[in-house]
Amino acid sequence: MSFYKFVTKAFKCFVNIFYKYKVIGAENIPDEGNVIIAANHKSNLDPIFLAAAIENRQVAAIAKKELFDKKPLAYILKKLNVIPINREKPDISTIKNILKAIKDGYILGIFPEGTRIKEPGFGKAKAGLSLFAIKGKAQVVPISIISNYKLFNRVTIFIDKPISFEEYYKQKLTSEENERLSQNVLEVIKENYYIHSK
Length: 198
What we know:
Strand order of the largest sheet: 1-7-6-2-5-3-4
Radius of gyration: 16 Å
Mean pLDDT: 95
Shape: globular
Number of strands: 7
Largest sheet: 7 strands, mixed
Low-confidence stretches: none
Oligomer: single chain
Number of helices: 6
């Protein structure tokens, strides 16, 4: 068993023991092809909840580069396909690594808001989601993580149908246009969040 599979199995055990964990729409994760999953982000538990939900593919997540400052943690994150990124100014090599991960068959995991939103509600989407989807010719699967993060409470992972960005593949978009397209995905995540929170 690979290290990735071992850890994701451990995550599944953890969420099923300590939460009322439920995944809706797992069949919406394509078994092949270029795919990005995009989810809301309020807690450090979110990557665990997502990794436990995706069973048919390996995820390569994007995380802030500061997490890689501690060598033991950096080693583990690299074994789990995590890609470090400078959130303020991603460099060309990072973007190439992200696009390579998509091309190599990993599902790219991204939080469109770019950081945890601790207060109620949602933040604004960054341009990165749209940029990676178009450059990587990837479908985007919106995922809503619905939880109050309290032990033994409900956690619902709602996975919606993939969104295609194909009509934009040959266009050169501005940063503002990429932000708008990313925000459109976040609006789907928000809508599903509120519907399934009831």
